[in-house]
């Protein structure tokens, strides 16, 4: 069995297993809720048992919370590894997040609150941020107009629309407009470089891109349109030209323009009307594609369905965050829409519950390190969902920043993306939750669509560092390579033994990768039925609580963002001076896992081959090169020059040794 990617992870887990603090659920009223949706451990256990023993009845009940345009004939059709949920049903995700609420008389209620980054970078007199609120009626009108504009650009049901936008309300409008007409969206995180756009647009065979002139980040303009232009040029050269680029004017920065291809967002939307009914889609129609990293150099397009995904995100959002419409909640997830967390828990899951969602454009420390706390106090945020890496940064910036602000509106605190160390958990609990807010450490993946292991705030006692117990419908287990469930406290592979509505439906255009990557390694030892393999290692303690240890494949989790080591390696070897590269994770105070790259440089004597001296100048150049090839998130934290990489007899790089070297517990002699 492989060991987890981060060698420090198991040490961290050892300390987590000695963690003895317990935090019991509190009465709902103490936190300002009328009630908990799941009000105690017995209710949780009863519901969970029912959900895995009789999923069809359980999910049919749950499905009543959505609006269906045509009844489904069957809840579940499971032909492993292929699944259909709500067979032949008709439904639309935008209708459920927007139009339904207008029909039900909530058109004038706030659906989305947006706050921009303060535009002037001046800590003394910061420019007040721009604040906009959109009602469900506003969203209905804007998504209809955007959908009509897309249709005019030739987009039809089933055509993938690429979205590469800043965090403004228009990214939500663009996503929901696609859902409205059944055009799957493929959102690319705005921090990715042109090369990443080229890869994703090509793989998705996407012909239309929605972007903006720029986006603000720490007072700087991120040149989104320029990146798209560069990508389009390459796409054209490669014979995959893009037909149209719809561009939002956000920063007013200078941009290139191609009349035959580019159209302004505002002009396109002004030229159409706001009548565009939500298309009655099949339950299994693809709602979106989202690219994520795997073990190979090429990102994979994870396919999600319409009905199953929507129901799963709606249900998990409701139970994990105790979302209740009509109760003055304002929920804030600080992720970017470019990641799955933004898809499921800024947009779909939250809006389907008719709870207003807050969208913030900027960085957590711009112009000052109390930016988040100021926003929470101003808007009276009730649920906050963020990442352990952010929490560790807040700890470092100092307790005085949250202390300055009134955080009394907060009721539930969530984390996602990587294991949270107990120290960060306790800081979050004390300094943000003031000892009263439950913390929900939600474990899930792009592939799972929504939370699969998570505390429920009114029902499950929490332990710092553990994501606790499985969500309804999730038959999670820690197993060995033969699929046998392991006894308490033994480390193994995290598997899910039954299908659930939010599970991925495929890897776009790559059946083999879907079957091999997720469904071939583990199976039921008695029946041979495949289990879903998460690629994470985990243990369960004697209370049945899960402790996730981290990835067991060649994926590293940097600041909660997934990166394939091979992606970074290919970027490094594409630099003319580099002969060979191996990338591993290393412990990092803020990021959890940082990137350590071992590189061998082409001989300095063969200048014509690009040979260089292994010096600091080259280190800087390589860092910039990786940022240019993938994006700033992939910049190595440490680059180490070596004469050669340690290999096994069969020629495989000894990654485990390199991980130990990176972590400082081992040395290699040729390291300089
Ligand atoms: C890790 C993010 C421990 C895990 C939603 C998983 C976590 C990968 C947690 C998926 C958590 C996510 N505790 N580890 N609460 N949440 N992970 O696809 O390794 O970007 O496989 O989805 O993040 O990352 P992805």
Quick tags:
binds 5'-O-[(S)-ethoxy(hydroxy)phosphoryl]adenosine, disordered N terminus, 19 helices, eight-stranded mixed β-sheet, 672 residues, alpha/beta
List strands and helices in order, with pairings.
Blueprint (H helix, E strand, L loop, with lengths): L6 H11 L23 H13 L1 H9 L10 E6 L2 E6 L2 E2 L1 H14 L3 E6 L15 E5 H17 L8 E4 L4 H13 L3 E3 L6 H11 L3 E5 L2 E3 L2 E3 L1 H14 L6 E5 L13 E3 H6 L10 E2 L3 E7 L7 E6 L1 H15 L9 E3 L6 H12 L5 E4 L10 H9 L3 E4 L1 H10 L2 H4 L8 E5 L5 H11 L6 E4 L33 E4 L12 E5 L9 E2 L3 H9 L12 E9 L5 E6 L3 E4 L2 E4 H9 L4 E11 L3 E10 L14 H14 L8 E4 L13 H8 L10
Parallel strand pairs: 4-17, 6-7, 6-8, 7-14, 8-11, 11-12, 16-17, 16-18, 18-19, 19-20, 29-30
Antiparallel strand pairs: 1-2, 3-13, 4-5, 9-10, 14-15, 15-23, 21-22, 22-24, 24-25, 26-27, 28-29
Helix pairs in contact: 2-3, 4-5, 4-6, 4-11, 5-6, 7-8, 10-11, 13-15
5'-O-[(S)-ethoxy(hydroxy)phosphoryl]adenosine (WTA) binds next to helix 11, strand 20, strand 24 and strand 25.
């Amino acid at each position: 069995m492989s060991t987890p990617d981060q060698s420090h992870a198991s040490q961290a887990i050892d300390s987590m297993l000695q963690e003895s603090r317990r935090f019991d659920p509190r009465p709902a009223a103490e936190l300002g809720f009328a009630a908990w949706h799941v009000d105690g451990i017995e209710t949780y256990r009863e519901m969970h048992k029912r959900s895995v023993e009789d999923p069809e009845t359980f999910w049919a009940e749950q499905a009543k919370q959505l609006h269906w345009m045509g009844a489904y004939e069957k809840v579940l059709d499971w032909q492993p590894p292929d699944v259909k949920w709500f067979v032949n049903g008709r439904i639309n995700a935008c209708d459920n997040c927007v139009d339904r609420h207008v029909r039900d008389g909530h058109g004038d209620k706030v659906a989305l609150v947006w706050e921009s980054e303060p535009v002037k970078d001046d800590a003394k007199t910061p420019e007040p941020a721009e604040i906009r609120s959109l009602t469900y009626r506003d969203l209905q009108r804007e998504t209809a107009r955007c959908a009509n504009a897309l249709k005019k650009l030739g987009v039809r049901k089933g055509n993938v629309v690429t979205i590469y936008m800043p965090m403004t309300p228009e990214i939500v409008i663009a996503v929901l407009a696609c859902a409205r007409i059944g055009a799957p969206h493929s959102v690319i995180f705005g921090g990715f470089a042109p090369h990443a756009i080229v890869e994703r647009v090509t793989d998705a065979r996407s012909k239309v891109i929605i972007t903006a002139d720029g986006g603000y980040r720490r007072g700087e303009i991120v040149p989104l349109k320029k990146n798209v232009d560069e990508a389009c040029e390459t796409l054209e050269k490669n014979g995959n030209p893009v037909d149209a680029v719809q561009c939002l004017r956000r920063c007013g920065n200078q941009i290139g323009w191609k009349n035959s291809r580019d159209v302004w967002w505002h002009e396109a939307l002004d030229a159409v009307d706001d009548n565009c009914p939500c298309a009655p889609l099949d339950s299994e129609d693809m709602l979106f594609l989202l690219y994520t990293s795997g073990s190979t150099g090429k990102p994979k397009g994870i396919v999600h369905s319409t009905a199953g995904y929507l129901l799963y995100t709606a249900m998990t959002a409701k139970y994990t965050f105790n979302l209740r419409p009509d109760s003055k909640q304002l929920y804030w997830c600080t992720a970017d829409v470019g990641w799955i967390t933004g898809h499921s828990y800024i947009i779909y899951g939250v809006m389907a519950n008719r709870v207003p969602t807050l969208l913030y454009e900027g960085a957590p420390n711009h112009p000052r390190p109390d930016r988040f706390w100021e926003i929470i106090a101003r808007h009276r945020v009730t649920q906050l969902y963020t990442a352990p890496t952010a929490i560790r940064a807040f700890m470092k910036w100092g307790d005085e920043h949250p202390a300055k602000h009134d955080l009394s509106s907060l009721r539930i605190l969530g984390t996602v993306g990587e294991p949270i160390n107990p120290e960060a958990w306790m800081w979050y609990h004390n300094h943000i939750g003031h000892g009263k807010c439950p913390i929900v450490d939600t474990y899930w993946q792009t592939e799972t669509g929504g939370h699969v292991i998570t505390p429920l705030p009114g029902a499950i006692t929490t332990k710092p560092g553990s994501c606790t117990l499985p969500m309804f419908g999730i038959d999670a287990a820690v197993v060995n390579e033969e699929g046998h469930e392991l006894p308490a406290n033994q480390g193994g592979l995290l598997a899910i033994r039954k299908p659930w509505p939010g599970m991925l439906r495929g890897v776009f255009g790559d059946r083999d990768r879907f079957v091999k990557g997720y469904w071939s390694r583990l199976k039921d030892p008695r029946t041979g039925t495949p289990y879903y393999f998460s690629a994470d290692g985990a243990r369960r303690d004697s209370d049945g609580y899960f402790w996730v240890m981290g990835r067991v494949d060649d994926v590293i989790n940097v600041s909660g963002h997934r990166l394939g080591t091979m992606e970074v390696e290919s970027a490094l070897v594409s630099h003319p001076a580099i002969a060979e590269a191996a990338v591993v994770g290393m412990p990092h105070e803020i990021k959890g896992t940082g990137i350590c790259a071992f590189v061998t440089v082409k001989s300095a004597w063969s200048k014509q081959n690009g040979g260089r001296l292994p010096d600091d100048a080259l280190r800087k150049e390589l860092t910039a090169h990786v940022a240019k090839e993938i994006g700033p998130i992939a910049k190595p934290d440490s680059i180490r020059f070596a004469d050669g990489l340690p290999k096994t007899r069969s020629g495989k790089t000894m990654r485990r040794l390199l991980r130990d070297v990176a972590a400082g517990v081992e040395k290699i002699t040729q390291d300089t």
